[in-house]
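In response to the reviewer comment on reproducibility (Comment 2.3), we provide here a single inverse folding case reported in full, input and output, so that an independent group could reproduce the run without further information from us. The structure tokens appear first.
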């Protein structure tokens, strides 16, 4: 295959996190969504709990160091709290979520995560409710503000992800003050630009990623394996295939082999600038 996963990671050509797109179903319809996720979406492209756990176990055997789970909204899956615990028992895991579906019952089911290497990465784009909800949906801000402290109180690790467009430095600083007040430190605050793919491309928002702007990390969806988690985007209901690695995802070794052949042509060096993460 020309290179190994460990060699690719050491040379800065790729990361050692395997990404799983759990579902493209969502209770929100963010204006910059990569996958055109929304309520009532017809093609939900869901990975089953059994498939995600099996892929995680394969990933561990192949030398991956971590998992990322995204969507859509991961907690639209009724069994996701248990799936997330299963994944966290295999490898360190971060799950992306909009943080709006955390009822008391869901919080109780998540309690076990405090004992695992699992983080919940919650999206919040502004400390101003109207500004945040303009991008993400009505009452999103209020629900996140109510949820994050309850997660932190239960000993769960929370990360805040902010997608930026025209926010000012002062606005971002107010957001930082807010997440610090919850006990979420700056190291757990991820800030990135809108990527002009999916719905963002249709809305003419964000930046066009260059060939080295995004670190390749093997990403699995119901449609196949892709080069990185910003790759399996959707426009007008159709998946973009320009960054498809392989249609076959099981066994994971086959998709990894194809992935490594592609990243062997990526620039090497830990000093390669990655502007989007």
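Designed residues, in position order:
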């Amino acid at each position: 295959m020309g290179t190994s996963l460990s060699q690719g990671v050491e040379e800065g050509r790729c990361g050692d996190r395997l990404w799983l797109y759990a579902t493209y179903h969502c209770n929100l319809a963010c204006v910059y969504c990569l996958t055109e996720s929304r309520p009532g979406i017809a093609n939900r492209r869901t990975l089953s709990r059994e498939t995600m756990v099996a892929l995680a176990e394969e990933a561990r055997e192949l030398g991956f160091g971590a998992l990322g789970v995204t969507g859509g909204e991961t907690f639209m899956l009724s069994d996701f709290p248990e799936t997330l615990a299963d994944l966290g028992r295999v490898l360190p895991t971060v799950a992306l979520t909009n943080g709006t579906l955390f009822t008391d019952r869901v919080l109780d089911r998540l309690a076990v995560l405090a004992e695992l290497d699992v983080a919940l990465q919650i999206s919040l784009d502004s400390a101003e409710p109207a500004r945040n909800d303009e991008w993400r949906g009505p009452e999103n801000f209020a629900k996140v503000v109510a949820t994050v402290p309850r997660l932190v109180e239960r000993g769960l690790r929370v990360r805040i992800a902010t997608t930026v467009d025209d926010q000012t430095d002062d606005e971002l600083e107010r957001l930082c003050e807010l997440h610090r007040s919850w006990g979420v430190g700056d190291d757990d605050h991820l800030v990135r630009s809108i990527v002009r793919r999916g719905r963002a491309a249709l809305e003419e928002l964000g930046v066009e990623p260059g060939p080295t702007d995004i670190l390749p990390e093997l990403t699995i969806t119901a449609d196949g394996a892709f080069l990185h988690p910003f790759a399996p985007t959707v426009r007008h209901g159709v998946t973009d295939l320009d960054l498809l690695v392989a249609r076959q995802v099981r066994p994971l070794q086959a998709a990894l082999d194809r992935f490594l052949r592609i990243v062997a042509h990526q620039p090497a060096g830990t000093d390669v600038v990655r502007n989007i993460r």
